[in-house]
Amino acid sequence: MPGTTFNMRAEIITIGDEILIGQIVDTNSAWMAQKLNLAGIKVKQISSVSDDRQHILEALNESKGRADLILITGGLGPTKDDITKKTLAEYFNTGFRLDQDALENVRRIFSKYKAPLLESNIKQAEVLENCITLLNLNGTAPGMWIEHEDRIFVSMPGVPFEMMYMMEELVIPKIKKTFKLPVIVHHTILTAGIGESILAEKIASVEDSLPAHIKLAYLPKLGTVRIRLSGNGQNEELLKNEISVYVKRITDLVSEFVMAEKDTPIEKVVMDYMESRKLTLSVAESCTGGYISHQLTQHPGSSKVFLGAAVTYSNELKISMLGVLEETLRNYGAVSEETVKEMAKGAHSAFHSDYSIAVSGIAGPDGGTEEKPVGTIWIAITGRSKTISRKYNFGNKRIQNIERSATTALIMLYKLMNQEQVC
Amino acid sequence: MPGTTFNMRAEIITIGDEILIGQIVDTNSAWMAQKLNLAGIKVKQISSVSDDRQHILEALNESKGRADLILITGGLGPTKDDITKKTLAEYFNTGFRLDQDALENVRRIFSKYKAPLLESNIKQAEVLENCITLLNLNGTAPGMWIEHEDRIFVSMPGVPFEMMYMMEELVIPKIKKTFKLPVIVHHTILTAGIGESILAEKIASVEDSLPAHIKLAYLPKLGTVRIRLSGNGQNEELLKNEISVYVKRITDLVSEFVMAEKDTPIEKVVMDYMESRKLTLSVAESCTGGYISHQLTQHPGSSKVFLGAAVTYSNELKISMLGVLEETLRNYGAVSEETVKEMAKGAHSAFHSDYSIAVSGIAGPDGGTEEKPVGTIWIAITGRSKTISRKYNFGNKRIQNIERSATTALIMLYKLMNQEQVC
What we know:
By secondary structure, the first copy, chain A, is α/β, with parallel strands linked by helices. Chain A has helices at about 15-20, 30-40, 55-65, 85-90, 100-110, 120-125, 160-180, 195-200, 205-210, 235-255, 265-275, 290-295, 315-320, 325-330, 335-350, 400-420; strands at about 10-15, 40-50, 70-75, 95-100, 125-130, 130-135, 145-150, 150-155, 185-190, 215-220, 225-235, 260, 280-285, 305-310, 355-360, 375-380, 385-395. In chain A, strand 7 (about 145-150) and strand 8 (about 150-155) form a beta hairpin. In chain A, helix 2 runs parallel beside helix 7 (about 160-180), helix 3 packs across helix 4 (about 85-90) and helix 11 runs parallel beside helix 16 (about 400-420). Chain A is globular, with a radius of gyration of 26 Å. The longest helix of chain A has 24 residues, at about 400-420. Chain A has a 6-stranded mixed beta sheet with strand order 2-1-3-8-7-6, with helices on both faces. Chains A and B meet through helix 1, helix 2, strand 2, helix 3 and helix 8 of A and helix 1, helix 2, strand 2, helix 3 and helix 8 of B.
């Protein structure tokens, strides 16, 4: 029927013992799920299975029962633990052919790195007889597109940037060309400073009034809660308009807690705000050890706002780089209101930025005292007119303390900027 | 039978649309898999399913066919999109009871944060009638341990630190008390500077001689390849000894590429080496923007080695913080051998460290020129006797360029230290 869209369901199968023994975190699947969603394809399940013939065969069979598109990553390397290709051949009851383009690609890569071409590398250019080859310009293992019993199976390498290229340049475009897909729209609101259950109570009237094709979810994380509206439809513009009405109703109800009306990391909210007002930022980091700077600079274009940071782990550097007084450190210690304020002011004047963040605390697991237990964090922000500071007691997990400190400092900065810019 | 161990198989089921639409990366499963493995439990599959009644029921059914222990995370929050608990009740055909200890815990948490207790929060203290309650000291949603048709089902919150506490303090100890589990031993060798396939060829004789209960795998990542030996057995000491023989044979064959004989992140290898020799480190970061410092300082005890860093995004800060000459920047630009060497020397003398790393490059996606395209990265290391430097051309992905620069700089540092310390 012309005009009818195909509600394609996908399953992602990741193959590799390293995921099942917890040696690596599967970041590929989240990335793939995002791209599929944007294309209007619903991911029904993500399954991680081991480098085991029987188990791979079972997973393929199960996925066939619930998905139209099965995306398989991993197990295509040149070494003996990589068994995906031969297991797929068994599953489809097919053989191999040497793909000349894939072989050419392998040769090109090895000559670029001036590495000797091994038998195992040449074998990587072998693909399933029943497949359409997906050329891998970033690596030696080609991908494969197989149509089988009304399903599409795609096998891709597990190396993230090889898979990403293949998905973006080959797989998604090919699917879009072949099928008319529905529209999936997500709209996320970022809130800070309010708990999940109180938030839910405040917007209960909106949640209760949602139609069946729009769902609402809450995603709490380190002092923030994201509210996500997800809609399914045929017409993108209509659906977006419909969702935007609910977004407006929600943000009206909890406006004082809304940091962004889109799914943006908090550091990006802060930088976008600053960029549009031509404000600059510097950071003085002690216990966060470069994490805040990294959060900011992972984003393209951050140099328009972020000038730099002093990561001062030692007291000597707090003095020499930030101008903290020796006396202050001696009298109050490195983790104190006095020190963190001098750090913020020091960065502000040394780096000539409009705003400065400073964090000093005890991230743990060691270094705590009775008076200042692990998790004691002082944060200061120097702005146009003043320096504000606040103490937090987070907990005893190092990484969590670092991440929470960063999020909290950025929220404090955002609030101060709003105060100071209002007029 | 006394003495016989139980080869327990686990499945991890994560529930939540946020994973299937790619809004969050599932880090819980890798963490859980690690802990299970250490306890001698093999993870058979990780399945991520949506907040959908029918789909959760199917996943429970399927997992029952392949696992003895089914660990379920997510969907226990106070909001309407959290449906795990009622779906489990349906699956087990059971009702709810209000758990007094869990209720007390909810009250305690709300009074601590001085937040009003809502009806939805009280409902969180309701658990399945057929369960053993797992108290959640870090949050309001209790966990549940259910024994059903010779399987153990455990339901836990999806918030990482709540789940982690429950796994470490309650679930793993309870399993260990109940079952005699086999021993699983992993031993990983970290190599740098050699490709996966050449490595495999060099150690082929060892790989071919492995007994059936020991498996070998290769994990390539950004300039490093990890070789992992995994063994299964009854006696931990015997198994460890057996594996260590193969580790020795492998490291003998490729000794010049071995950075560590255990599964350690590269920055930890460097810091351990420096700590044992009482060496200190400082960092001058431009395009890596704090990432190297964060990599180092995420580890407890890093303050023994790491003094601090200057994150100098702007040219002005390269001059004022690191003493780079204005002339050098004018004549050669920020991304040049001359500048990166002055950055390394500047950090070395300003921070009084034994070694210094400096990185300056074009991380992208913008800022490239014909002469210096995106991915052009200069790295310099100042050591005891000299400053070394090298140019790399990585690629056009920002995050990947940042990560690769960090790994490469740490490998360069490690090699220089080895050179300078040999005598």
